[in-house]
Amino acid sequence: MKRLVVALVSAGSLLISAAALAQTTPAPATAPAAAPAQQSASTAAPVPGAKRAACQSAAKALKGQERHDQMQLCMAQAHLDCLKQAIDQKITGPQRKDFVKSCSG
């Protein structure tokens, strides 16, 4: 039973990581003029509730306590991902709190 839970948590984390990687776009190496436009796009607030919906769909097949546990782990991972994104973008103070709150949904 423990192995099943560990496998589900690992799979959920991989799904969230893959979704986060799919959302990021690499910066063009040959177009320095595009950097300011890309920076403003990356500081825009993410779609509210998108990560929560992803967590709900990941835990859809589970029931009871396993579903609850998976949701908690998934949302904690989403919060951590948003915090890392805020740190990378050098957002500080109350703006960081608002960013993380709006990002994780």
From TrEMBL:
This protein's name: Phosphate starvation-inducible protein PsiF
Entry keyword set: Signal
Region: Disordered, residue numbers: 27-49
Record bears the keyword Signal: yes
Cleaved signal peptide residues: 1-22
